[in-house]
Write a structure and sequence with these properties.
heterodimer, A: 279 residues, alpha/beta, Rossmann fold, 6-stranded mixed beta sheet, 4-stranded antiparallel beta sheet, 12 helices, 38% helix, B: 324 residues, mainly alpha, MetI-like fold, two-stranded parallel sheet, 11 helices, 2 strands, binds adenosine-5'-triphosphate, binds magnesium ion
């Protein structure tokens, strides 16, 4: 942790009550395993509420693995385990009484490749998460949720006339925004995005970046990206992960405000990576 | 050879690509072979159909008084009346079997694909495939000697006593148990493997991406199956069911051995009044039939052929997701 980081904490002390409403995420001593292989080692991280945090680093350094451990999606893979704590609002997500299903309902996720449910209509895709909590939804309530989520994800104008068409019939960029609508329709506290724009054209990318800038007023957003410009454009804070070599675990090298990380990082590796002189 | 000539060939409109297509001997041989195989199948099918129609003709054109092989109850009422109960029995038995086998098959397939630990799921898969390898005459004998008496003693009476108001369960329970219910159960066991195997296959192919999409929304395992796996596997389950239905429609030995038949339309499952199936009826009557009786049996075979063909066509369409 950098000096400035510590300074920030002392300048703006947070009461527990504040933290409760703002969904700050605190990661301590996190080790993430695939079977016996330790993919990510000893991560301590504070993720600021209502802001965008970018995770950057070379391929294979464990960004996706780390991201998936934040909503307990990591453990749906066979033999995948996690050690350490991830606290949100002071509650450890890996605590003994915590149901991973409940965690995932509060912490939404958008994947690298768009994955709408192909047989469901656009409207049903948006409602899919909502229906898990609430089997019967009144028509006007449903319509309202659908419109709001699709407006928030910048897709409404394009699909409002064909809400009953299958979600698989949209373009890749539209599908990705549909997946974002699906994730935010349940009003999650945190939104995790794993390279959400990697399969998209520049225009859809721009739309999704603008969307993130809007969403960060309501949600805590963590995004994995390989695109330095994107990290610079959308995120307030950036975390750099790295690995020493194949077979070694990924580690958090440095985390700071995005400005500092790009202009004036303390670590040489970070400097090399953000300026493209890596490897 | 001058350099000019070489330059000329390079400037031909093919732009350097050979004008002659690359030799495709392998392609041609293979497409010839597969086309040949396709034609043989079609010819065989047409041959069978022609044989059936040709030999069925005398029965189809005979006056109604003459119809009724073996002098049974159908005697003298004409071919349609004769084949009617048999066609009904065939479809009824097969549908009942399907009704029992599909829920079990899908449940087992889901257990194997999404719930069971790896090793157990592999073992279960083998066991199910083994079920498919048991000859139908063995199923028939098991039906007569084990299933029928057990069910008639312990299960059918309960249904008849407590749910007798449902028409299917009404009537006097046949003591030997060789009734429609037993036939349906045995058929269900026989078609279970194919339904399970095909369902398991499609369930396993559900894209991981869709499963994770459901889980990331906070779906439980069952909800994930409902949202991602079942919709994806639906057409596969339907075509598996249709294949099972095809097998149940044509099943001969087990039904012939187990069922105590009568020439009736009846939905009752436990009584002595059970409509026979076409295939079992042919097997039972054929040895004692001569002349027009044989033609009549072949004509019923033609009807079975038509029913089966129809089911197969439907299963094709179902596999492409064109129905339901
Ligand atoms: N399902 C898995 N089973 C076993 N090992 C895995 C699995 N998924 C990832 N790994 C390993 O974990 C390490 C980190 O992978 P991860 O996908 O988190 O990297 P990443 O930083 O997201 O890379 P990229 O930028 O290419 O997406 C890699 O060594 C990878 O091989
Ligand atoms: Mg990744």
């Amino acid at each position: 942790m950098t000096n400035e980081n510590i300074a920030e904490h002392t300048v703006e002390p947070m009461s527990a009550a504040d933290a409760n409403t703002e969904h700050r995420i605190t990661v301590r001593g996190l080790n993430i395993f695939y079977g016996k292989f330790r993919a990510v080692a000893d991560v301590d991280m504070d993720i600021e509420p209502q802001s965008v945090t970018a995770l950057i680093g070379p391929s294979g350094c464990g960004k996706s693995t780390f991201l998936r451990s934040l909503n307990r999606m990591h453990e749906v893979i066979d033999n995948a385990t996690v050690e350490g704590t991830v606290q949100i609002n002071g509650v450890d997500l890996y605590g003994p009484k915590i149901d991973p299903v409940q965690v995932r309902r509060k912490i939404g996720m958008v994947f690298q490749r768009p994955n709408p449910f192909p047989t469901m209509s656009i409207a049903e895709n948006v409602l899919a998460g909502k229906r898990l909590n609430q089997r019967r939804i009144k028509k006007d309530e449903a319509d309202q949720v659908i419109e709001q989520a699709l407006r928030d994800s910048n897709l409404w104008e394009e699909v409002k006339d064909r809400l009953d068409a299958p979600g698989g019939g949209l373009s890749g960029g539209q599908q990705q925004r549909l997946c974002i609508a699906r994730a935010i329709a349940v009003e999650p506290e945190v939104l995790l995005m794993d390279e959400p724009c990697s399969a998209l054209d520049p225009i859809s990318t721009l739309a999704i970046e603008q969307l993130m800038l809007q969403l960060r007023r309501k949600y805590t957003i963590v995004i994995v990206t390989h695109n330095m410009q994107q990290a610079a454009r959308v995120s307030e804070r950036t975390a750099f992960f790295n690995i020493e070599g194949t077979g070694k675990p990924g580690r958090l090298i440095e985390m700071d405000t995005t400005e500092v990380m790009f202009a004036n990082p303390t670590q040489q590796a970070t400097q090399d990576y953000v300026t493209g002189r890596f490897g | 050879m001058s350099t000019d000539t070489i330059d000329d060939t390079d400037r031909t409109p093919t732009g350097g690509f050979a004008a002659e297509p690359v030799s495709k001997v392998g392609d041609r041989v293979f497409s010839g072979l597969s086309r040949g195989a396709g034609i043989i199948i079609l010819v065989t099918l047409a041959g069978v159909a022609m044989f059936l129609v040709w030999n069925a003709m005398p029965a189809l054109t005979a006056s109604s008084k003459e119809i009724g092989p073996g002098g049974d109850e159908g005697n003298g009422k004409g071919f349609l009346s004769y084949v009617g109960t048999l066609a009904f029995g065939t479809v009824w038995a097969a549908l009942l079997a399907l009704l029992i086998a599909v829920p079990f098959g899908v449940a087992i397939a889901l257990y194997i694909s999404h719930y069971a630990p790896k090793r157990l799921s592999r073992t279960l898969g083998y066991v199910i495939d083994l079920l498919a390898a048991i000859p139908s005459v063995v199923y028939g004998l098991w039906g007569i000697f084990v299933l029928a008496p057990t069910m008639a003693d312990h299960v059918y009476p309960w249904f008849s006593d407590h749910l007798g108001f449902v028409p299917m369960f009404s009537g006097k329970v046949l003591a030997s148990g060789r009734s429609m219910a037993t036939v349906a159960l045995v058929l269900a066991v026989m078609i279970l493997p194919i339904i399970t195997a095909i369902s398991r296959e499609v369930f396993l192919q559900t894209p991981r991406l869709n499963e994770e999409a459901a889980l990331a929304l906070g779906a439980t395992r069952w909800e994930m199956i409902r949202i991602a796996v079942l919709p994806y596997g639906k057409s596969g389950v339907i075509s598996g069911a249709m294949l099972g239905l095809g097998r149940a429609l044509g099943e001969t030995m087990a039904v012939a051995l187990i069922l105590a038949p009568a020439n009736v339309y009846s939905l009752k499952l436990f009584t002595s009044q059970n409509p026979n199936t076409i295939a079992a009826n042919i097997a039972l009557q054929f040895p004692e039939s001569t002349g027009l009786e044989v033609n009549t049996l072949i004509a019923t075979g033609l009807v079975l052929f038509a029913i089966t063909l129809f089911v197969n066509l439907m299963s094709r369409r179902a596999a492409r997701g064109n129905i339901f």
